[in-house]
Specification:
alpha/beta; 2 domains; eight-stranded parallel β-barrel; globular; binds ligand LLP
Length: 426
């Protein structure tokens, strides 16, 4: 299935091309609002959500809020009928605030606090994915105190290697996530005995940025056979939550086929007679966003040419943290420009690990040039920090010819407003 790119060059009569988000020139946004700046395409989000809906029409698609938690992004998806996968009280708040129906929200994560559990129960969300015995016991206590019965799915660790980056692999037995496959039945029997709990389904999530289907296939088969065993032993299993993890094509190589993924999901669900839940994050949001940055300086050393830009690892940490490769394109591009030069694109932060891209062949760059870092809509803004006392990039949503600021970049006064001198220093 081909999903159109929402960030494309439009050529002017003089042969110069300028990158647009839908119908809005990225340079216009950079000049009006300033850089660094995240730009999201409403159409991109919509088309990617709908591509999944098309292949899994009966599934509950719970957008993984951690991939992009801007309330405008969430609202774009909630208006299409999306649910949400949340992993904290903060994400739960955002999802509800942006209009996601409580009955479409699943709460995942290994370390929920009692306050977060109470918030989820009071909101009446669809299910809480539990990952350990002590968590199950605390949830029972909290539910009884809230006069409610918690809808539980046990997150099972199927011990399957997702063949992805070590830091984002979650389904092997040495990972901290989920309950070992063999212990899951014990947890369901515990749910039956505890009055504050009822079982509603079963869940897994084996990792992120999967580029092959085999690990999904193995994990989902294991999960559906466990669901059948549980049902046969009298447990209430109405749904299987298959988690997220669908990889995207950062490098231009073949991407994972969504229809084939859907087939695997459907087969596993049909075998168990369960409703399907999926928790995609990156697949929906990554290609629907870019980060625009401006070149501050060109620095030539004996070894390299560095383009020092105004975005850094505090805005976008994926290259530093995972050695992630993101395509970087000039926002203006002229066919007749001089031969390409190999440059490292680096940020102003005082660490050698602060880079955006290494050894890229680009037209010669100069101070003031604008660059577009692609596929930055997932785990970009949501992982930003204020390291080096830098306010994270602002954010803009585009729809057709329209655009609006959906996150204002903070000022330094706002950044320090939560801090104060100790009593004896005033
Ligand atoms: N469900 C659960 C329980 C998860 O932990 C995650 C991601 C997802 C769904 C969504 O996975 P996705 O469809 O986006 O692959 N910061 C890393 C990715 C961390 C993923 C954590 N969990 C990165 O930038 O690559």
């Amino acid at each position: 299935m081909h999903i159109k790119d929402s960030f494309t060059y439009i050529e002017k009569p003089d042969g110069e091309k300028s990158m647009h988000a839908e119908e809005v020139p990225l340079a216009l946004l950079a000049n009006k609002i300033g850089t660094p700046l995240y730009v999201y395409s409403s159409l991109g989000l919509t088309e990617r959500f709908n591509a999944l809906k098309k292949v899994l029409p009966a599934a509950l698609i719970c957008f993984s809020i951690k991939s992009n938690s801007n309330i405008s992004v969430i609202r774009t998806l909630s208006s299409l009928g999306s649910g949400a996968d949340v992993v904290s009280g903060g994400e739960l708040h955002r999802a509800l605030h942006a209009g996601i129906e409580a009955k479409k929200i699943v709460f995942s994560g290994v370390g929920k606090t009692d306050e977060e559990m109470a918030a989820a129960l009071n909101a009446n969300i669809k299910q809480i994915n539990v990952e350990s015995v002590p968590e199950l016991e605390l949830l029972n206590k909290v539910a009884l105190a809230c006069n409610s019965v918690a809808p539980v799915a046990i997150r099972v660790n199927p011990d399957v290697d997702a063949n992805t980056h070590n830091k984002i692999s979650t389904g092997r037995k040495e990972d901290k996530f989920g309950v070992p496959y063999k212990e899951a039945i014990y947890l369901y029997s515990k749910i039956k005995k505890l009055e504050g709990l009822e079982s509603v389904g079963i869940a897994t999530h084996i990792g992120s940025q999967l580029m092959t289907l085999e690990p999904f296939s193995e994990a989902f088969r294991k999960l559906s056979s466990l669901a059948n065993n549980l049902k046969n032993s009298g447990h209430n299993i109405q749904s299987i939550d298959f988690g997220g993890g669908l990889g995207v094509n950062y490098t231009g190589n073949a991407a994972l086929n969504v229809s084939d993924y859907a087939k695997i999901v459907k087969t596993a669900a049909d075998d168990s007679g369960c409703q399907i839940i999926i928790e995609p994050g990156r697949f929906i949001s990554a290609p629907a966003g870019v980060l625009i940055t401006r070149v501050l300086y060109i620095k030539r050393t004996e070894a390299k040419i560095f383009a020092i830009v105004d975005s850094a690892m505090n805005d976008f940490i994926r290259p530093s943290l995972y050695d992630a490769w993101h395509q970087v394109d000039p926002i203006y591009y002229h066919q007749k420009s001089s031969p390409l030069q190999t440059v490292d694109i680096v940020g102003p932060i005082c660490e050698s690990g602060d880079f955006i891209a290494k050894e890229r062949d680009l037209p010669p760059l100069t101070t003031g040039d604008l660059l577009c870092i692609r596929d930055a809509g997932a785990y970009g803004a949501s992982m930003s920090s204020t390291y080096n006392s830098r306010a994270p990039a602002g954010e803009v949503m585009v729809s057709g010819k329209e655009w609006d600021i959906i996150k204002i970049r903070q000022t330094i006064e706002e950044l320090i407003s939560q801090e104060n001198f100790a009593r004896w220093q005033k």
